[in-house]
Amino acid sequence: MITTIIEALSGLGIFLFGMLYMESALKEMAGIRLKRWIKNSTSTPFKAILSGAAATAALQSSSVVTLMTLSFVSASLISLSSGIAVIFGSNIGTTVTAWIVATLGFKVQIELFSLPLIGIGGLALILGESHKKIRVAAKVFIGFGLLFFGLDLMKVSIESAAIHVDLSLYTHLPLISFVALGFVITALIQSSSAATAITLSALYAHILGFDQAAAMVIGTNIGTTVTALLGSIGGIPDKKRAAMAHLWFNLFTAIIAFIILPFTTDILMNTLSLRSDPTIALALFHTIFNVMGVILLAPFIPYMARYLGGLFVQKEKMPTKYIHKVDPKVPDTALIALRDEANKLFMKTIKYILLLCNIKPNDIMVQKNDIKVVIANNMDKIEFDFLKTYEKIKEIESDTVAFVNILIQQNLSPSQSEYVAILSSSVRDSVYAAKILKDIKTDLDDFSESDNQDIITIYNEIRKNLVYTISIFVNYMEEKYSQEKCLEKFSKAEAENKHTLEAATSLAAKDKRSKTMVVSLLNANHSAYICIKSLQEASKSLRLEFLLETEKEDI
């Protein structure tokens, strides 16, 4: 039993990773042609419903189609309304499996393609890494394969326990109990198709009566929403909204189907004379209530999307920490908030610059390690979204400028006006320092991965100088250094910068093969120098009762 639980949880992890990996690849490959194709195939609710039904019938898995749809919505390739329509259609397409089982007695398992997909994708990713189209297609293959593999692991591990349950022990229970049973089995094995096949087998073996089997099928329709809900974990709001629409549709159709179950049973068993062939009757019942749900709800898709648009609204976190809490029309409090915001931005910029140089800020700002130790312990490239982080810094600058524009319109004293100007200049200098180093991030990463030891040495000299300078700023902000002592130490930093420049120039003369890389080194060293000078300017008006915050907070 423990092994089963471990396998199920492993499958869940692989499934979620495959889902996210596929989503990432879809965003990367979202070229104009792909967007046009998806838009055309879902341009109207009717076409989107047909697309969902056809895709599910072909793949034999409404779960996979639903997950694909969630990825498309999350990647903004299709609208929420179109995604809802595709999901509605997938509920019709999933009934094909019941017909295959009922008529042919077997079920095509698309999950068997998972390992070949992963294998082909892996080989293509390695062999075609330099070609964007091949690389992206390989990621899609791997994502699909992992998704299938994860689903298969969950089904096999938990289904092995579920199929040993003797359903005849529960025939005396009310029909609603069989709805719950269908839901639980589907939620556990992550496949309504598999749960429906189990139900059909039990009906064929006369373990269940038709009403009980029909109630179980209704439950499987609700249970399949668990897959979509899991797939929406950590997604953007539209992804969660599409998953919620899937839940609503299946709940609505389940309630209607359960209410009309006695009437439907009478028609199927007596009017259509399917009593002798209950599996066909069950497949037909499955199709009827799903088609009925689509017909009833399709006209309301735009209204549903509009209502869902008000759900899962993320309260946007303010980029600033102080100025949005005060009224710029009250100068006394506004000046304090502006000062604290400028201080905060300065420290955020320092953390950002350290990360750009592949240095963990904690090593300098909290542990206060020796510079040589810091460099030795930070030789690997640090992966982080440096462009997104820079955008956050720019947002702070933008909000600060807007705040200052209101503040300077107030009746400020000459000293207050001068102070506002100094703080505004500090904000601009901090952001400029971040921009200068952000623009050479790719070069810095290339240097870190070079196999030329001379280039690595100069790269580390650039980093040492930046770390040395930043340690000066940290001590200044903590009021351990006076401005005079800072200026004294900055002169050493300038001398080191010149030394690095000479070393890079010497390397250019010595190693013609690395000429391009050496030129990049010279440019990087110059950018680092400008960055340091900008930070110096930004720091002149700062400190002032500022308390240094540790790296517990994201930059």
In total, the number of domains comes to 2
Total beta-strand segments: 0
| Terminal-residue CA separation | 45 Å
Biggest sheet details: none
**In angstroms, what is the radius of gyration?**
31 Å
Query: If helices are DSSP runs of H or I spanning 4 or more residues, what is the number of helices?
Result: 25
Coarse morphology? elongated
User: What is the N-to-C succession of helices and strands?
Assistant: HHHHHHHHHHHHHHHHHHHHHHHHH
Portion of residues in beta strands equals under 5%
Mean pLDDT: 77
Oligomer: single chain
The residue ranges in which pLDDT falls below 50 over 5 or more consecutive positions are: 544-554
The portion of residues assigned to helices is: over 70%
Class by SSE composition: mainly alpha
Description:
The chain is mostly helical. The chain has two domains: 2-308, no CATH class; 323-539, Methane Monooxygenase Hydroxylase, Chain G, domain 1, CATH 1.20.58. Helix content is 75%, strand content 0%. It starts with a helix and ends in a 16-residue tail after the last helix.
Task: Please specify the SSE layout and strand pairing.
Blueprint: H1 2-28, H2 32-41, H3 45-59, H4 62-74, H5 80-93, H6 95-104, H7 114-127, H8 132-162, H9 175-189, H10 192-204, H11 210-223, H12 225-231, H13 237-259, H14 261-271, H15 278-297, H16 301-308, H17 331-356, H18 361-365, H19 371-377, H20 386-407, H21 414-438, H22 441-448, H23 453-477, H24 483-510, H25 515-539
